Amino acid sequence: MNAIAQTITSSRWTRRDTLGVYLREARFEFLRVLRTPGFALPTLLFPTMFYVFFGLLFGKSGDHQVATFMLATYGTFGIMAPALFGFGVGVSMERERGVLAMKRVAPMPPLAYLFGKAAMAMLFALVIVLLLFALGAIFGGVKLPLPEWIGLALALVLGSLPFCALGMVVGVRVNGQASAAIVNLIYLPMSFLAGLWVPLQFMPHWLQDVAIALPTYHLSQLALGIIGMDARGTFATHLLYLLVFTAACLAFAVRGWRRIQDR
Description:
- This protein is about 80% helix and about 0% strand.
- With about 260 residues, it is mainly α.
């Protein structure tokens, strides 16, 4: 008799049972999307390809500042996709296919499903960040102290959580057919307007003012500050914005989530 069957029989959850369910849900969700080429390949290849083209090729003049700067900006761009698409499209499609209804009657904690998707997004973010780090260090001449490598990795991986919250808003409130289009309308403009592709100093002043309202801007500036680049604003300001943004998105998403659960 396996652990889940024992739990059903005894009608009790131990902490070990609960932890096991959370970890299995995260593992299976990661493997599921990893085995989905339409999700995994663009998610992993787009940020690395763009970084090679715009970060490494433009940074071969002996000055490695471009490669270092874009390590933070394209890192921000890269970690957004698994969070937004994993929640925004994933939850929306699974909601319409009845997967959420099945999860609701399954012998598992209610939050395990969302934990699995958040863990998947963070694991993909970590893979993307490590790929970018390897490209930057080997081919771009990026040299950072170990604490800065670790700090940048932590900031980017944890920085996927605000976009998980934003994706969840889409996932619980938009139908499956429209979800991919809506996520792209969020993902691409937020990347461009925040200066992730083109540095803000090369953009019109009014666009620079728009950038300040975006979570992509604050995460990228926070990342730039960690590695000693010319960042705007303070670490505390960017962190506070991201925390407030995440809380606001979660509050809005929870209302939609409860409506789904009550059906």
